[in-house]
Amino acid sequence: MAQLWGGRFTGETDALVYQFNASISFDRRFLEEDIEGSMAHVAMLARQNIITQKEAESIRDGLVSIREDVKSGRLVITDAYEDIHSFVEANLTQRIGEAGKKLHTGRSRNDQVALDMKLYTRKEIRETHALLTELLHTLLSMMEEHLDTYMPGFTHLQKAQPLTLAHHLGAYFEMFKRDIQRMEDIDRRMNYCPLGSGALAGTTYPLDREYTAGLLGFTGPTLNSMDGVSDRDYLIEYLSAAATVMMHLSRFSEEIIIWNSNEYGFVEIDDGFSTGSSIMPQKKNPDIAELVRGKTGRVYGALMSLLTTMKGLPLAYNKDMQEDKELTFDAMDTVKGCLTLFTGMLKTMRFHKEVMAKSAMNGFTNATDAADYLVTKGMPFRDAHSVIGRLVLYCIEKDTSIDALSLEELQSISPVFEADVFEAVSLRTCVEKRLTIGAPGRKAMEEVIRAEKAFLEEADLWSREKH
Q1: Which residues are CB-neighbours of 168 under 8 A, at least 6 positions away?
Q2: Distance CA 132, CA 456 (A)
Q3: What fold characterizes domain 6-105?
Q4: What is d(CA 23, CA 41) in angstroms, rounded to the nearest whole number?
Q5: Of 38, 124, 426, 461, whose Cβ has the fewest other Cβ atoms within 10 Å?
Q6: What is the Cα–Cα distance from 360 to 366, expressed in whole angstroms?
Q7: CA–CA distances in Å: residue 338 to residues 269, 335, 395
Q8: Is the pLDDT of residue 278 over 80?
Q9: How far apart are CA 363 and CA 152, in angstroms?
């Protein structure tokens, strides 16, 4: 079929070249955005008397009919068209005649595709924000439920000090909270409209770019036409933020995989989010957590791909920028899919509280508190550290824990120990006396939960306003 740019050429484009150059196979996703942008553009053209109101109405009716026919299946987007823009314009002209050819007045495919990508990315950012908010609601509910669920905290994957599951989950709440803030920040910074930039140098038509930007929900128009058509910073920012989301999901998934193992037995993943083995009937595998961990690499790859594509491009638009789409679309789908499945897995997981508490007790997580106990009795900390080290060695040899020893055994290591040591090194005491903000003690955690609820109220409000 004839191309939008065919007037300059006398020969046919080689079939392989055409196929290599075409983007319809993936930019068909832009149908809604392309029609939305076109309707705003034509409204502005009529308002500026560049086309007549009658022509504008005819174009709008044609665009609506194309959208409805594609949705219903009466009209199919095929590879006969080079891109979604030519598909829309060709079908519009076929339906309404000469008026359809006026749609492209004062517009280039360069600012058109820049607009479509921004509109699509803005929608994706807001959908990702909503999924992150749902995940945070899930985490907050779990935190409230597990304020008294004791477990070991780890450093270097070695048991370190006791804390609560609420506190552990709260660490991930903070990570995903920052992810939400990044999405809001990118949305604010990218929300400027490139339409009206033309190919790179604007246009001689008296366009009202502020009006068009307002119709499309942008803060205003971009202030440099060359940057307007060649800016992909916002995509790089989104992919960077998406990669960070995936990194957080991957870390969390890794812990769930470990906790789900026979050796730990902290959690049981619901059957709906697990699979079995084709040969080993006893297996129940944490496949969703593993796939989330594995898919993180795909999103990292999209970020690196776009950074590499953009690094050597002179101003303004270059065809290389067509490569901004496929991997970005894949990353967007991957992040949203992972967030949805991960949240569902969390909601249905069961925690084995007794196993977690026993693991904390048997892992000498109260050793630091035992040393602090000796310090309160007047012993220098360095000496207390040495005494508890010998005590731990004794427990290892006896295959027992500090709080399972008799007072006589404790005093054989150091006569400073008294009967009140057992209360001092209990899991509850070890956790509850840590009351500074950010610590796992119940009062500190309740204060944090109040703050997190306030944050989520603001995040929910942001989502309602943007949708």
Answers
A1: 151, 153
A2: 10
A3: Fumarase C; Chain B, domain 1 (1.10.275)
A4: 23
A5: 461
A6: 8
A7: 16, 5, 44
A8: no
A9: 8
Which pLDDT value is given to residue 282? 61
Q: Could you tell me if 7 and 90 are in contact, meaning their C-beta atoms sit under 8 angstroms apart?
A: no
124-135+180-204+225-352 belongs to CATH 3.90.1150.10: no
- Kindly report the backbone phi and psi dihedral angles of residue 191, in degrees, each rounded to the nearest multiple of 5, phi listed first: -80, 55
The pLDDT assigned to 9 comes to 45
| Among the listed residues 156, 144, 158, 171, the one whose alpha carbon sits nearest the alpha carbon of residue 439 | 171
Instruction: Identify the pLDDT of residue 16.
Output: 85
Mean pLDDT, residues 292-314 taken together: 98
**Can you tell me the mean pLDDT for 110-120?**
98
> Strands 220-221 and 192-193: what pairing?
parallel
pLDDT over threshold 70, residue 71: yes
pTM score, whole prediction: 0.92
Residues 179, 184, 189, 191, CA torsion sign: positive
276 has a pLDDT exceeding 80: no
Residue with tokens 């995936």: 246
Q: Taking a C-beta distance cutoff of 8 angstroms, is the pair 349, 267 a contact?
A: yes
Query: How many C-beta atoms surround the C-beta of residue 134 within 10 A?
Result: 17
Please tell me the predicted confidence (pLDDT) of residue 2.
47
Whole-number Cα distances in Å, 222 to 85, 193, 195, 318: 21, 5, 8, 19
Q: What is the CATH number of domain 362-432?
A: 1.10.40.30
Phi, psi of 279 (to 5 degrees): -125, -30
Rg (CA), the chain: 30
Packing angle, helices 109-145 and 442-466, rounded to 10: 150
Average pLDDT score over residue span 66-74: 98
Distances (CA, A) of 375 to 378, 411, 429: 5, 15, 16
Q: Based on the residue annotation, tell me whether 156 is a catalytic residue of this protein.
A: yes
Alpha-carbon gap, residue 170 to 164, rounded angstroms: 10
**Structure token pair of residue 144:** 């409230």
Angle at 453 between CA 174 and CA 155, to 5 degrees: 25
Collapsed DSSP state (helix, strand, coil) of residue 240: helix
Of 277, 305, 352, 386, the active-site residue reads 277
- CA–CA dist 191, 196 (Å, integer): 15
- Between 109-145 and 31-47, two packed helices, what is the crossing angle to 10 degrees? 120
Lowest-confidence segment of 23-32, 188-197, 309-318, 399-408 by average pLDDT? 399-408
DSSP letter assigned to residue 275: B
Catalytic annotation, pick one of 156, 168, 401, 463: 156
Cα 169 from chain centroid (whole Å): 17
Taking phi over 0 as left and psi of -120 to 50 as alpha, with beta for the rest, 447 belongs to alpha
